[in-house]
Amino acid sequence: MKTIAVDMDGVLADVYRQFLNLHFQDTGEKLSLESIRGLKEAEAFPLLKKHVNSPGFFESAPLIPGAQATLKKLIPHYKVFIVSAATEFPLSLHEKLRWLNNHFPFIQWQQMVFCGSKEIIRTDIMIDDHFKNLDTFSGKTYLFSQPHNEIASPGKHIRVNSWKEVEMQLLPDKF
Prior knowledge:
CATH topology of the largest domain: Rossmann fold
CATH architecture of the largest domain: 3-Layer(aba) Sandwich
InterPro entries: 5'(3')-deoxyribonucleotidase (IPR010708), HAD-like_sf (IPR036412), HAD_sf (IPR023214)
Pfam family, one: NT5C
Number of strands: 6
Protein name: 5'(3')-deoxyribonucleotidase
Family: Belongs to the 5'(3')-deoxyribonucleotidase family.
């Protein structure tokens, strides 16, 4: 059975919606996804460090539409691992674990990988929104579209804009 590494932030957890909401709460400025298209996350959100280091940021992030349903469909056909760089932000490790247990109760603890660099990950497929993780990966790669990567060429990676597109790529016989 082939293996898949699925990133969490920006792929399962809608951290962009979280950042937009918190930016508005802190500044009163309502940003749109279009207005930050092509900007790195730190450029788009000047208070990013404050937000990712605030209690509750990771645990309360909204779910990206379609993620749960598609992962449920992938599990009978692939060994799925959720891989998240959770050691960068001190509060994120426990919050991400609680978030996954809440939104993906069908994912077992053995399928959760919290790490620093994803260079060590050796699955057949990786789905991520950051080039830094995909570029060093030796398997098949899918770039999950987010504002920070939308205007960049996907290069050798296959761009997917939604979980429905992931499903169409990885379960083509179901369509």
